[in-house]
Write a structure and sequence with these properties.
Layout: E1 5-10, H1 21-29, E2 32-35, E3 52-55, E4 58-59, E5 62-63, H2 67-79, E6 83-88, H3 98-107, E7 111-115, H4 120-127, E8 141-145, H5 161-165, E9 170-174, H6 180-189, E10 197-202, E11 210-215, H7 219-225, E12 232-236, E13 261-264, H8 268-280, E14 284-287, E15 291-295, E16 308-311, H9 314-326, E17 338-341, H10 344-351, H11 366-387, E18 401-406, H12 412-419, E19 424-434, H13 436-442, E20 449-452, H14 455-467, E21 476-479, H15 482-489, E22 497-498, H16 504-526
Parallel strand pairs: 1-6, 1-7, 2-3, 2-6, 8-9, 13-14, 13-20, 16-17, 16-18, 18-19, 20-21, 21-22
Antiparallel strand pairs: 4-5, 9-12, 10-11, 10-12, 15-19
Helix pairs in contact: 2-3, 8-16, 9-10, 11-12, 14-15
């Protein structure tokens, strides 16, 4: 077995573009990526299709995995001969416990390299127009953590307030929002001037960035009133009063309003596709994908006796083509087969391989695919029999179809085919599984909108919420299709939005219409 290796890579902060070329290169070539909650998950789209993605995010009071377990995981995966990227927000060595992970891997005799990243301590204040050093204002910068990191589970700040209060430069506090009131009291008690300029930047370097500027004495109260929470960077010192123009500000110097946030559930492929469409429309996206695709180990069936190959998702197409390659099955063996797809996304996935669908329903869901394809097969059989009047119709079976899809696929396809007497076979290309740790992290998020691409994804989300006794009282739900809507209505009395077209573009258009409607209502109310 080849020797594995580990890269401790900094993913930068906020905007996914704030990642180094070296980190991007190792992401593109790794076998496993182990990532944190503060990592921009848009970076994960650069990994290989078969890359193993493991979420180990930690927030105050909620740890998907303890640090000792993370260390052991890195050693285990590298020990399997894999190239592992430990992707951390900011820089691994700035309160990221990267040093501990490096030592654990090194002690196990495994090769390891640290790849620096852009730390939020510098980049987030910059995104708010605050230079942490500025001639004549601040000639030094001190970075501390608001939460002690000396042992697992310690929750209180361990800060030398008397030393910090005497600093004349810029004080940056990371991970300090849960102890903000205590930190401010400590600094004031140690002699820090109550009118010292301060700033809090929440979700910095993203389209959701919010900035609060205040005197030190009033900081906790104003932060609480305005809903400032983690993740945020606290800046204390004269530099905090600066507000230099940057790309996040409009030409008149007024900060742009934060964009509405849309959470996208489902599989990684669906989330990536929809996120790209929404971001192109200027909508901020929160990755809430927690469904995992696990391809079957069974060999593809012999397609000789099938007339139709039926695909119900781009994921199915991707797994099918990958299995064809791995089994060294030539695409030319499908020359006499017809292809049916559920919608344009699935059709496009096939077209990328030079295969074009023969049938796609006008309404992109399983029910219309089943009914439309069954009618087409029956019509074709009738025409064939009419052209061959001497054929023994009783011995001639209807054209057969194989459903190439997820194991948990809708029952409507086999139901319609069985009812109409059409021969079919089910072949489970893959199984949709829930990444439990990722789902736990997703369920505490409450963006303005949450999108469900399938009934399976919606069920997994709400069942997870129910098991943990959680409720989402803020988000509006957006469904791709009627079947997805029905599933959502099983769990909530709130009327979800339903895309007129069951596709990525349809969902993006649905959200766009709703935002324009809200904007118009806001303008009308002001008039």
């Amino acid at each position: 077995m080849r020797q594995g290796k580990v890269y401790l890579a900094g993913g930068g902060c906020g905007d996914a573009d704030l990642v180094t070329l070296k980190a991007l290169t190792v992401l593109q070539n790794c076998d496993t990526v182990v990532y944190d909650s503060l990592v921009s998950e848009a970076l994960l789209q650069w990994t290989k299709e078969d890359c193993e993605k493991i979420y180990v995010g930690k927030r105050c009071g909620s740890h998907a995995m303890k640090q000792t377990q993370i260390n052991a995981l890195l050693v285990k995966k590298a020990g399997e001969g894999k190239t592992v990227v430990r992707l951390k927000g900011g820089d691994p060595y700035v309160f990221g416990r990267g040093g501990e992970e490096f030592m654990a891997v090194q002690d196990a005799g495994i090769w390891c390299e640290e790849i620096p990243g852009i730390t939020s301590a510098i980049a987030v204040p910059a995104a708010a127009g605050i230079p942490v050093t500025h001639r004549g204002i601040s000639d030094s910068v001190t970075v501390v953590t608001g939460t002690a990191a000396d042992k697992e589970g310690h929750t209180g700040p361990a800060l030398d307030y008397h030393t910090l209060a005497r600093l004349e430069g810029t004080l940056i506090i990371l991970m300090g929002m849960h102890h903000l009131a205590e930190i401010v009291r400590g600094l004031l008690a140690a002699g820090k001037e109550p009118n010292t300029p301060c700033a809090i930047i929440m979700e910095g370097a993203t389209g959701r960035q919010k900035v609060l500027r205040s005197a030190l004495l009033e900081l906790p109260e104003r932060a609480a009133k305005q809903g400032f929470t983690s993740p945020a960077v606290i800046v204390i010192g004269a530099a905090a009063k600066l507000e230099l123009m940057n790309g996040l500000q409009e030409s008149n110097g007024r900060l742009s309003l934060p964009a509405v946030t849309v959470g996208v559930t489902g599989t990684r492929r669906f989330a990536d596709k929809l996120s790209s469409a929404l971001q192109a429309a200027g909508i901020c996206v929160q990755d809430m994908s927690f469904m995992d695709i696990r391809p079957t180990k069974n060999a593809l069936p012999d397609f000789t006796d099938f007339s139709w190959l039926v695909f119900t998702s781009p994921n199915g197409v991707s797994v099918f083509l990958d299995k064809m390659r791995k089994e060294r099955r030539d695409l030319r063996t499908l020359y006499d087969k017809k292809i049916a797809v559920i919608g344009p996304g699935t059709a496009m996935a096939l077209q990328e391989a030079g295969i074009y669908a023969d049938y796609m329903p006008k309404v992109y869901d399983a029910a219309h695919l089943a009914q439309g394809l069954a009618d087409k097969i029956l019509t074709g059989q009738m025409e064939e029999n009419a052209g061959n009047p001497d054929k023994d119709r009783k011995k001639q079976p209807l054209a057969s179809a194989v459903f190439l899809r997820a194991r948990q696929g809708s029952d409507i396809l086999p139901f319609v085919f069985q009812k109409k007497g059409i021969v079919y076979e089910e072949y489970a290309l893959y199984e949709l599984c829930v990444q439990e740790q990722k789902r736990d992290a997703v369920m505490i998020k409450e963006p303005e909108y949450i999108v469900f691409g399938s009934a399976m994804g919606a069920k997994a989300y709400f069942e997870g919420m129910r098991m943990r006794g959680l409720q989402n009282t803020k988000s509006r739900y957006v469904c791709m299709g009627e079947w997805c809507e029905r599933e959502v209505r099983n769990y909530t009395e709130r009327q979800p939005l339903v895309a007129e077209e069951s596709s990525v573009d349809g969902v993006a258009a649905c959200i766009g219409r709703e935002l324009r409607k809200e904007e118009k209502e806001c303008i009308d109310s002001e008039d």
